[in-house]
Amino acid sequence: VRSDFVRGIEDIAGQNILQCYQCGECSSGCPVAAEMDILPNQVIRLIQLGQEDAVMEAESPWICASCYTCYVRCPKDVRIAQVMEAVRLWHLRQATHGDHFNISELPEEALAGFPQIAIISCARKYSQ
Fold first, then answer.
1. CA–CA distance from 1 to each of 7, 49, 80 (Å)?
2. This prediction's pTM
3. H/E element holding 103?
4. CA distance to 74, 100, 105, 114, per residue, from 54 (Å)
5. Local confidence pLDDT in tens for the 128 residues of the chain
């Protein structure tokens, strides 16, 4: 049984997470992998396993440059950059409780804890 988390990430990303068979091509070609705390294929594996807490604690989705090098290298055509974006959106939606937010209503600890790119991305997509 797949969790709401796994289904949610798949729905947002428009990807079937189970397509990934962990070949590692995405991670070996990622230009920012050296800066990540867990590699892109490991993020995918944690999602496959429904390990929401581990994925939400990872810095890697915020570091992803969305350059699509991973997608070009993937033999199964998994758009990992879209999955990383889905993880960022899932994280923000859990913190803001919905698809819209007003930045002035975010708790100070949330503003301090989110990377700036997350706030900017969310503001562009979900502000009222």
1. 10, 10, 23
2. 0.76
3. none
4. 23, 25, 27, 16
5. 589 999 999 999 999 999 999 999 999 999 999 999 999 999 999 999 999 999 999 999 989 988 999 999 999 999 999 999 999 989 888 776 555 666 777 778 777 777 776 667 666 655 54
